[in-house]
Each structure stands twice: as C-alpha cells, then as structure tokens.
Write a structure and sequence with these properties.
Blueprint lengths: L3 E2 L3 E2 L9 E3 L6 E4 L3 E2 L7 E2 L8 E7 L2 E6 L5 E6 L8 E3 L1
Antiparallel strand pairs: 1-2, 3-4, 5-6, 6-10, 7-8, 8-9, 9-10
Length: about 90
C-alpha cells in the first residue's frame, strides 16, 4: 500500500473516516482508522496493526524499520522507534 507519492503528495494523511486500511496489491487488512493519529510528517501514522502478522518489519538501521505487507511484501513505509504518541509507533 503506497500511501505517499513523492510526485503527487500524500493522499491519506488527513483522511480520518472510519474504516480499515488494506494493502493495494492484495487487500490484506493492515490498520484500523481507530489506530490512526495526526502527525507532522507527510505520511499517515498508526499505533497498531489489525493482526499481529498484518505487516513484517526489517531493520534498515538502528531505530528505523522498513515495513511491508505481511501477506505479499508490498512496501508500506517505515517505523521509527520512540516516535509518535507511544513508543514503537509506525509512520507509513
């Protein structure tokens, strides 16, 4: 699920309607709108996933993880440790 386009700007950053965010490639359930929070970055941010295996994470450097869809591997963004309203929050 590609939330942000570097050429067209962020589409879902200010989108707060109720619902479930799913992967655009495989429809895997990723995040609930209840876990979304406002953030100063241009990307939408969430505090938790729908299921434990909704996403997979790979450490790119200390404190920064590449986040992918847990089902198909589609790139979703990054998680920055100790960022957001609680520790270990993802920003996609």
């Amino acid at each position: 699920m590609s939330f942000c386009s570097f050429f067209g700007g962020e589409v879902f950053k200010d989108h707060f309607k109720s619902g479930i965010y799913v992967c655009t490639k495989c429809d895997n359930q990723l995040f609930s709108s209840r876990s979304k929070y406002e953030h100063s970055s241009p990307w939408p941010a969430f505090t938790e996933t729908i299921h434990e295996n909704s996403v997979s994470k790979h450490e790119e450097r200390p404190g920064a993880y590449k986040v992918r869809c847990g089902k198909c591997g589609n790139g979703l963004g990054h998680e920055f440790v100790n960022d957001g309203p609680s520790k270990g929050v993802s920003r996609f």
